[in-house]
Specification:
Elements lengths: L1 H30 L9 H48 L11 H13 L3 H21 L1
Helix pairs in contact: 1-2, 3-4
Length: about 140
């Protein structure tokens, strides 16, 4: 959750910076007397085109940033769902142990998803369970 707050603060900072840039841009244009009543359409057209291009590029950058942030969060959520499903594969409703091949597949999937600590913890529990099973026999 901390990353969500961090990304929201970056978005807020980015919006403030963009607003400051636009205000500065219009202040410079106002000081150059571009918006005076005696300015002709021929003089104003390039300024409006530049302003529109600047606004469009800023919106595109912000949109790209938001899309990337959303994609990262969706990828993390999907990885968490896969981890939960993988762990569910380790057990059955009847309490019977799943085959070793299935356990190995789950550990392999967890390791490939970057969940090494979880995979090692599960492997340790599996080894302890096997030792208890062998000693009980």
């Amino acid at each position: 959750m901390m990353k969500t707050k961090n990304s929201k603060s970056w978005i807020a900072i980015l919006i403030v910076v963009v607003l400051i840039l636009f205000a500065s841009f219009f202040l410079v244009l106002w000081r150059m007397k571009v918006f005076d009543t005696d300015t002709t359409n021929v003089e104003l057209a390039p300024v409006l085109a530049l302003t529109g291009a600047l606004f469009t590029s800023v919106v595109a950058v912000i949109g790209t940033f938001l899309k990337y942030s959303n994609d990262v969060q969706a990828e993390k959520r999907l990885a968490q769902e896969v981890v939960v499903k993988a762990i569910q594969l380790l057990g059955t409703d009847t309490g019977i142990d799943v085959p070793q091949t299935q356990r190995a597949g789950v550990l392999f999937a967890l390791a490939n998803l970057g969940q090494l600590e979880l995979a090692i913890t599960l492997l340790g529990q599996m080894l302890q369970s096997e030792q208890h099973t062998i000693l009980d026999k």
